[in-house]
Specification:
The protein is mainly β and 210 residues long. It folds into 2 domains: 81 residues, Elongation Factor Tu (Ef-tu), domain 3, CATH 2.40.30.20; 90 residues, Elongation Factor Tu (Ef-tu), domain 3, CATH 2.40.30.20. Helix content is 13%, strand content 41%. It contains 4 helices and 13 strands. Strands 10-9-13-7-8-12-11 form a 7-stranded antiparallel beta sheet. A 6-stranded antiparallel β-barrel has the order 1-2-5-4-3-6. The chain starts with 7 loop residues before the first strand and ends in a 13-residue tail after the last helix.
Length: 210
C-alpha cells in the first residue's frame, strides 16, 4: 500500500532481458532499510525487491518484472538511464499525505497537451476507455505513481495542474505531448462501480422478468 507521495527519483542502471526481466535501480535509499521481499512503487507499479546492496551514499536494488506488468504498464519502455518515481511501502502510523494507492496500474494514458504557465504545468491526459468512467472531477488519480487531483474531465480525457514542487521532485516535469504514463484510479471508485454493477442471484429489480 502506498500514498502516491514520491520519496526519491531512481535511475535504471542495468536491464537483464533473460527468461525473467530484471532491472537494477540506483536510488538514495539506505540499503540497510530495504529488506529482501520489500515492496517499492516504481512509476506506480508495485514491485518486489529481490536483491539490494550499498551503492555510494545510497543503494541499488534489483526487481523482477512479470510479463503481465510489462503488458499493462510503461515499464517495457525502460532503458538504461531512465529516471523513475519511487515510493517505499506505507507503514502503520505514517502520514497519509496523498490518497490510498495500491501500486496496481489500471491502464496506460497518453499526454494530449502540456501547457506551462507562471511556473505551473497543466496536463491533459487521455485515459483508456475501460477506466475513463472511474475518473471524476476533484477525485484522486495516480499518474506514474504520483497522487494528483483531477481538475476537469471531458469524455476519456482529464486535466491536471502540477505545482512547481511536484514537478521538481518527480519525473512529471519531463512529460511532453505523446508521452505515455501509468494510471491507477481511486480504489474507492473501483469498488463503488462494482457494487452498482453486481446484483446477487435472486435480487433482480422489482417488476423484472426472470
Amino acid at each position: 500500500m502506498f500514498t502516491g507521495i514520491v520519496t526519491d527519483i531512481g535511475r535504471v542502471i542495468a536491464l537483464d532481458d533473460g527468461p525473467v526481466r530484471r532491472a537494477t535501480i540506483a536510488s538514495g535509499y539506505d540499503a540497510a532499510g530495504i529488506a529482501l521481499g520489500a515492496s517499492i512503487s516504481h512509476d506506480g507499479a508495485c514491485l518486489t525487491v529481490v536483491s539490494v546492496e550499498v551503492d555510494g551514499a545510497g543503494s541499488r536494488h534489483v526487481i523482477e518484472i512479470s510479463p503481465e506488468t510489462l503488458a499493462r504498464t510503461t515499464l517495457g519502455g525502460w532503458e538504461v538511464g531512465t529516471k523513475i518515481n519511487l515510493e517505499r511501502a506505507l507503514k502503520m502510523g505514517d502520514e497519509l499525505g496523498g490518497h490510498i494507492v495500491q501500486g496496481h496500474v489500471d491502464g496506460v494514458g497518453e499526454v494530449l497537451e502540456r501547457v506551462d504557465e507562471n511556473g505551473w504545468m497543466r496536463l491533459r491526459i487521455a485515459a483508456p476507455d475501460a477506466i475513463a468512467g472511474f475518473i471524476a472531477e476533484k477525485g484522486s488519480i495516480a499518474v506514474d505513481g504520483v497522487s494528483l487531483t483531477v481538475n476537469a474531465v471531458a469524455g476519456a480525457a482529464f486535466d491536471l495542474m502540477i505545482i512547481p514542487h511536484t514537478a521538481q521532485v518527480t519525473t512529471l516535469s519531463r512529460l511532453q505531448k505523446g508521452a505515455h504514463v501509468n494510471l491507477e484510479v481511486d480504489v474507492m471508485a473501483r469498488y463503488a462501480a462494482r457494487l452498482i454493477e453486481f446484483r446477487p442471484p435472486g435480487n433482480a429489480p422489482s417488476g423484472s422478468k426472470p
